[in-house]
């Protein structure tokens, strides 16, 4: 079928704003966020309603055209970009961005899946509530993408991942069936929890068109501190102490090595001089909506205890909103700092908290014996056992070629180490197309078989994001 024949049925279905055919405009959708891969498509479809999504899916299934759902295209694993065949169409949810309803009493928000995360946070805040999902890409990622990747981020230690925030869903299955379960119930034990199938499914089971998300009371008080760690500080023990003493008010425990802090500092025009200790630094935050608690007092007491243990050399408690913002800015600018330098090979690993120090020690030796000149940028959501153990691309080398070399050698050693410690090669970024081979390498065969059966039940013809995660039973490849 020629390209124009592919697109014709969709043109009849959507208004002119709903079909993008101009190659220049298409190009912004076919390249992944890290510019490691460019796929090909004949069109980007932008439905405005759930009914249009269902009609698109039915037509695509009829013509045997594959579909790649896309939100903000900020994912790190190439899951939102089509393959090179030109036979997959991108379905972008960007025109479906409404806030449908906020229920302050039930503490829930119902949204279109194309709503930008930041806009949903803002809408919740305007009603005096918090959407407790926060990540560096929040100004451009969309709720459907957050569900597709089961996004984590900066407050998981308190509120959990996207999975933990999802109360209800609306989604279109691979044959056009609409699953409509936009309830805001906390309890609903009526059979399989179908909505959870879509979480982390990266567009392979259907297109999410709406979601109901759990909200929390909006914190009115925060205590934010920057801790400089002593040499060889046992990070997991520090976390245990802070967690225990924070009375469940700990919302953030973000670890950063001094190299990562320097990268962020170099990317900021007027950077704060916070620095790190020999063991790195940790950004800690407590938050509460209660007017009856003095969080600064609590934080000061906890920090004093932490300093007494010898884990922490020095700690700075933010004295103003601008000091707090400066601390956060430094943490959140690390990915940009890596990018400006020439990028990084990202390793989004997680291990049980009890093994985090062991991972750092073993991985450090592996990197040194692989190439003593390699530079690392190590930081992450240690409160969740999640490290971004990134290898910096040297300034003068080809980024793509270097990434391929590291990913086929050193990365596997690092993932082997994480796996041997009971960990995983992808804590929060997903599998997509880039990490599919790792799923085959590290997952229990029974688990992969179960995943393929789920995929087969939802999408036997492999219409939905073929090439990501797993293929159905009887499909082209083993995984
Ligand atoms: P996309 O990239 O568009 O899509 C992601 C996947 O979901 C794809 O497989 C796609 O097919 C599928 N999908 C998209 N929309 C739908 C839908 N409506 N229905 C079904 N499937 C769909 N991630 C974290 O977890 N934690 C972080 O701290 C974090 N920080 C980041 C910081 C930066 C600077 C950047 C650039 C990225 C970061 N990410 C982080 C990764 C990324 O932002 C998340 O994975 C995010 O959830 C992706 O959302 P998106 O809308 O961009 O999805
Ligand atoms: C983060 O935590 O900042 C991201 O998940 C990691 C990254 O952007 O590399
Ligand atoms: Zn992260």
From TrEMBL:
Residues 37-218 form the FAD-binding PCMH-type domain. InterPro entries: FAD-bd_oxidored_4_C, FAD-bd_PCMH, FAD-bd_PCMH-like_sf, FAD-bd_PCMH_sub1, FAD-bd_PCMH_sub2, FAD-linked_Oxase-like_C, FAD-oxidored/transferase_4, Oxid_FAD_bind_N. Keywords: FAD, Flavoprotein. The keyword Membrane does not apply. It comes from the Bacteria. The keyword Calcium does not apply. It holds the Pfam family FAD-oxidase_C. Gene3D superfamilies: 3.30.465.10, 3.30.70.2190, 3.30.70.2740, Uridine Diphospho-n-acetylenolpyruvylglucosamine Reductase, domain 2, Vanillyl-alcohol Oxidase, Chain A, domain 4. PANTHER family: BLL6224 PROTEIN, D-2-HYDROXYGLUTARATE DEHYDROGENASE, MITOCHONDRIAL. Belongs to the FAD-binding oxidoreductase/transferase type 4 family. This is FAD/FMN-containing dehydrogenase.
């Amino acid at each position: 079928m020629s390209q124009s024949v592919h697109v014709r049925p969709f043109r009849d279905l959507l208004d002119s704003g709903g079909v993008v055919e101009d190659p220049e405009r298409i190009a912004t959708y076919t390249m992944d966020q890290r510019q490691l891969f460019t796929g090909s498509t004949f069109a980007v479809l932008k439905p405005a309603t759930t009914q249009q999504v269902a009609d698109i899916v039915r037509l695509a299934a009829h013509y045997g055209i594959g579909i790649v759902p896309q939100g903000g295209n900020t994912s790190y694993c190439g899951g939102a970009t089509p393959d090179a065949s030109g036979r997959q169409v991108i379905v972008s949810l960007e025109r479906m961005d409404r806030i449908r309803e906020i229920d302050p009493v039930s503490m829930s928000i119902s949204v279109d899946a194309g709503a930008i995360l930041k806009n949903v946070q803002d809408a919740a805040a305007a009603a005096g509530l918090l959407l407790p999902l926060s990540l560096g890409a929040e100004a451009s990622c969309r709720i459907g993408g957050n569900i597709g990747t089961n996004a984590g981020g900066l407050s998981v230690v308190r509120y959990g991942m996207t999975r933990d925030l999802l109360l209800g869903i609306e989604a279109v299955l691979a044959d056009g069936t609409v699953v409509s379960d936009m309830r805001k119930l906390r309890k609903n034990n009526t059979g399989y929890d179908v909505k959870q199938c879509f979480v982390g499914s990266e567009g392979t089971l259907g297109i999410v068109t709406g979601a109901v998300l759990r909200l929390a009371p909006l914190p009115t008080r925060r205590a934010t501190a920057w801790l400089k760690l002593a040499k060889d500080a046992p990070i997991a023990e520090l976390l245990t102490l802070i967690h225990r003493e924070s009375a469940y008010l700990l919302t953030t425990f973000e670890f950063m090595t001094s190299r990562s802090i320097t990268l962020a500092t170099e990317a900021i025009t007027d950077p704060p001089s916070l620095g790190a200790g020999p063991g790195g630094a940790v950004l800690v935050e407590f938050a509460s909506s209660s007017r009856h608690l003095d969080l600064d007092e609590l934080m000061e007491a906890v920090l004093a205890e932490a300093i007494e243990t010898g884990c922490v050399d020095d700690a700075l408690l933010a004295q103003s909103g601008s000091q707090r913002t400066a601390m956060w800015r430094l943490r959140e600018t690390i990915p940009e700092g890596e990018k400006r330098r020439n990028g990084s090979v990202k390793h989004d690993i997680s291990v049980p908290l009890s093994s985090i120090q062991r991972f750092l020690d073993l991985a450090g030796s592996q990197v040194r014996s692989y190439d003593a000149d390699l530079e690392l940028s190590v930081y992450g959501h240690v409160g969740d056992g999640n490290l971004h153990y990134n290898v910096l691309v040297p300034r003068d080398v080809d980024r793509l070629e270097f990434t391929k070399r590291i990913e086929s050698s050193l990365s596997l050693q690092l993932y082997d180490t994480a796996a041997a410690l009971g960990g995983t090669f992808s804590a929060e970024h997903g599998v997509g197309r880039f990490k599919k081979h790792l799923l085959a390498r590290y997952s229990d065969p029974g688990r992969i078989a179960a995943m393929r059966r789920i995929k087969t039940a939802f999408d036997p013809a492999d219409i939905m994001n073929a090439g990501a995660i797993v293929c159905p039973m009887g499909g082209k490849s083993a995984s």
